[in-house]
Amino acid sequence: MKILVCISNVPDTTSKINFTDSDSKFDKNGVQFIINPNDEFGLTKAVWMKESNNASVTALTVGDISSEAILRKCLAIGADNAIRIDCEALDAYSVAKEIEAHCNEINYDVIICGRESIDYNGGLVPGLLAGYLDYNFITNCVSLDINSDDVKCSREISGGIETSECKLPIVIGAQKGLVEESDLIIPNMRGIMMARQKPLEVIESKDFSNQAVDKKFFKPEEKGEVKLINADEIDKLIDLLENEAKVL
Amino acid sequence: MSVLVYSESEKNSFKKSSYEAVSYGKSLADKMGVELICVTFNCSNSQKLKNFGADKIFNIESQNSQEFTCKVYSTLLLKVIETENVSTVILSSSADSKYLGAYLAGYTYGSYISNVVELPESINPFIVKRSCFTNKAFSSTELKGDLKIISISSNSYGIFEKEGKGSQEEFKVDEIETNHKVTNIEKQSGSVTIADADIVVSAGRGLKGPENWKMIEELAGLLGAATACSKPVSDMGWRPHSEHVGQTGKPVSSNLYIAIGISGAIQHLAGINSSKVKVVINSDPEAPFFKAADYGVVGDAFEVIPRLIQELKAKV
Ligand SMILES: Cc1cc2nc3c(=O)[nH]c(=O)nc-3n(C[C@H](O)[C@H](O)[C@H](O)COP(=O)(O)OP(=O)(O)OC[C@H]3O[C@@H](n4cnc5c(N)ncnc54)[C@H](O)[C@@H]3O)c2cc1C
Predict the structure, then answer these.
(1) Is B43 found in the same domain as B89?
(2) CB–CB of B140 and A123 under 8 A?
(3) B112 to chain A: closest CA residue
(4) Rounded to whole angstroms, how far apart are CA atoms B242 and A27?
């Protein structure tokens, strides 16, 4: 079984969000990049499937050379090989198109993405990819069991869990629950050393055009001062919520 | 041309988010000078959408659309999109709608944009405002695809009654082939979900242990609120993962968010920031949450919450 894990390179969760080029671009200055947390749950699951399903795991990112550091980390966590499609990831459409083109050459059985990235929060790439490839698709995926080409999986729905069955090939949008936080693999020295020997291939971009262009970014308005209510006068809080904020 | 709203229903009734999507769709259709089409699946109550502006209502009945799967729903919606010359599709932000949006965009080679918070500022070129960086920023984004698919952020637009023509249309469909079958749905009954709630009561590590959630549940019950928690609380297994809110958990955009014993770490705030009114109850006056909140109580949750419960009970 061949598994592809699509990895997005995102700003660390504590990053200050600023913009440049007259507010049309995210300012990467001084920002630490990490593997998108949802992708990491998916990668860990894929690494487990190396044993349970005798799978091979390829980690892929669409990005410039600066994104190779996280690919090396994926190799250290347990991916067998890595691929970087060389271009600046500007919108989800061109990213999904680049990945689709690669998937048309190498037929993966399972493609795992994160359900959304924590930077643009589009939640687009897994769905687009499934739609372009006409594969089955499950997002917000919290369990995945594959037996030859039979898939049993579940996803989080509003207020519960839905389980379904389908056939391979499939695209997954991973999230916490697919594996637990405590299951995430922290690479050890051996993993890091081994990662240096594993192949990291760079593929040329096919230069797909963008379909969504961020014209301008802006930040939310500054918040006013908090109104403090004395702990002994809780009735005042209720009164304010009812009559001032009008939310009760 | 026309605007289409996929109007999600469950057991023949619509959630608030469905009406909000229809209201948004109506305003957009008016702005573009076109008709508003609403599509429902296996819903006997679709006529209700007339009051929110539906001009044409298609209720699709078929065997394999009884449960939502994105392939079948996308295929069926595409038929309506083609026959009715639809240029723009509006979705809510429910789990199913967001699931559908991206797939439908891939399937139709359209362009999809999520977390939209306003009507487009311009139709040609098509530019809309969305939140991004988990509510730390917004962007004005131009969509270029021929078919535009928009999912709107909950509680960002509002619900407005406005009479549409409301003609109920027949739409004959063949069964769509798929090997994807829903086999089981498990839902907690009775409790309000975070996505649908007007009020969310959320608690953190300050509560010391899972045994202390009784008062949180009681408070939520009195307010008709959903319960939520910070990440460490779900990581430690005090509460289910489905309650974890924040940057790596669920987003919250309720009208009122009450945070109890939560410090207000940047990753937590990111996910709940788009809630309209935020209340913090924390024993530490230096807790960062006080900088993000509208109302704050400096105090011990184990004293403040029972008092709050008592006051609320006295009112009803
Ligand atoms: C990559 C990454 C992603 C993350 N994503 C998320 C996320 O999505 N959501 C999230 O929530 N966190 C997230 N975090 C974790 C986040 O950084 C914080 O650690 C977490 O939010 C803290 O949870 P807390 O406020 O419950 O606990 P603490 O920070 O321990 O705060 C407990 C608070 O309770 C108060 N308190 C204690 N006793 C009482 C009492 N008796 N009465 C009243 N108040 C009391 C204390 O003053 C304190 O402010 C993430 C972290 C990382 C690194």
Answers:
(1) yes
(2) no
(3) A124
(4) 33
Provide ipTM, 2 decimals: 0.93
Task: Please list, in sequence order, all residues whose beta carbon lies within 8 angstroms of the beta carbon of residue A236, skipping any fewer than 6 positions away.
Answer: A229, A230
For residue B232, the ligand 1 atom closest to its alpha carbon is 23
Judge if B40 and B114 occupy the same domain: yes
How many angstroms separate the CA atoms of A143 and A42, rounded? 10
Range of the domain at B259: 199-315
Q: What's the CATH number where A17 sits?
A: 3.40.50.620
Q: Which of B142, B248, B255 has the CB atom closest to A213's CB atom?
A: B142
Which amino acid type is present at position A57? V
A246 lies in some domain: no
Closest by CA position to B22, among listed B127, B124, B195, B157: B157
Taking only the tens of pLDDT, chain B with its 316 residues reads 999 999 999 999 999 999 999 999 999 999 999 999 999 999 999 999 999 999 999 999 998 899 999 999 999 999 999 999 999 999 999 999 999 999 999 999 999 999 999 999 999 999 999 999 888 899 999 999 999 999 999 999 999 999 999 999 988 888 898 999 999 999 887 788 998 899 999 999 999 999 999 999 999 999 999 999 999 999 999 999 999 999 889 999 999 999 999 999 999 998 998 899 999 999 999 999 999 999 999 999 999 999 999 999 998 7
**A46, amino acid identity:** A
Provide, as residue numbers in chain A, all residues whose Cβ is less than 8 Å from the Cβ of B266: 13-14
In angstroms, the CA A118 to CA B94 distance is 18
CA distance B220 to chain A (A): 12
Secondary structure of chain A in the HEC alphabet?
Answer: CEEEEECCEEECCCCCCCEECCCCEECCCCCCEEECHHHHHHHHHHHHHHHHCCCEEEEEEEECHHHHHHHHHHHHHCCCEEEEEECCCCCHHHHHHHHHHHHHHCCCCEEEEECCCCCCCCCCHHHHHHHHHCCEEEEEEEEEEEECCEEEEEEEECCEEEEEEEECCEEEEECCCCCCHHHCCCCCHHHHHHHHHCCEEEEECCCCCCCEEEEEEECCCCCCCCEEECCCCHHHHHHHHHHHCCCC
Q: Which residues 148-167 of B have a C-beta within 8 angstroms of A?
A: none
A127 with B199: Cβ contact below 8 A: no
Position B179 in a domain: no
Domain count, chain B: 2
Instruction: Tell me the CATH number at B220.
Output: 3.40.50.1220
For an interface test with B, give the residue of A34, A134, A233, A241 to mutate (most B CBs within 10 A): A241
Examine the domain organization and report whether B117 and B205 are in the same domain. Answer: no
